[in-house]
Amino acid sequence: MARRPFGVLGVVVLSLLAAACGGGGDSATTTVAEEATTTTVAGDAASATAALIAALATDDAGGPFTAESAECLAEGVITAVGLERTVSLLNSAEYTSAGDPTPIFGQMTDDEVSLTLTAAEGCVDLESAVADTLAHFGYTDDLSTCVGGALVAGGFGEPVLESFLTGSDPTAETEFGTAYIDALSGECASATYQLILDDLTSYYGLGSESSACVADTFEQSANYAEVLTVWMGVTDSSVDSTAVSDQITEVLTGCLTADELETLGIENTTTTQG
User: Fold this and answer.
1) pTM for the full model?
2) How far is CA 202 from CA 197, 199, 205, in A?
C-alpha cells in the first residue's frame, strides 16, 4: 500500500493496515521500479536535457514543472553541476520513469541539491510550484493552495520542491514540521478537515457518518495540533506520540462501527455504533 509524502494518510491507521497490504513497505513504489526501464543516456547536452525533461514533467503525473519549466531546470542543472556529472546521475539511476525525478536527483550531494533548487526557483513561480507539488502528492486543491501559500510565506517552499525532486521528507526537520502543522491546524483547518474526511471515506472506505465523527472529534480536540502531528507522521520530540496515538485509537474505536474496526484490524472493545 502506498503512502503519500508528508504523511497525508493517518499513520495510526496505516500501521494497522500494513499487514493487509503486504507488509510495511511501499509496494506501489516497488511496482513502479519493477515496471520502469533503465536507459543509457548519451554524453551530449541534448540527450541529457531530454532525459531530465522526461523525468521532471508529464501531463499525466502532474507536479510543479511544465515541459517549459522542466527544460529550464534541465539546462540549469547541466550548467550548475556540469554535463559529465549530469550524465553520470542519469545513467546511475536504478530506473527511469516519466514524471519521477527521484532516482536521478536523489543521488545528488547536498551542494548539488542546493544548486538545483536555486536553478528551479529561476524557472517556476515558487508559490504555484509548491501548491502543484502538494496536489501531486494527493492533497486537495484547497489544501494545496492554502498550505503551499503558508509554507512559501514562511520561507519553507524550497523543501517541498526538494521533496518532489529527491524523495526527501521535509517534515523530519523541526522548523518545517512546525510550520506545516501550524498551517494545517490554523489557517488551513477547514481544508485539513476535508482532507481527513476524504481519506477516511475514499482511501480507507469508512462510512460517511464514522468518518465525520473522527474528523469532528479530531478538530474539537484541545490538542488538535498534536493530533495532526501524530496523524500526519510529523517528527516532533515535544509531542508525546504514544499518548496521542492512544488518543487517536480511542477516537477511532468510539467512532467506527464494529465491521469498520475489524476491517482496520483494531480490537473491538467499545463502539458507539453498531
Assistant:
1) 0.81
2) 8, 5, 5
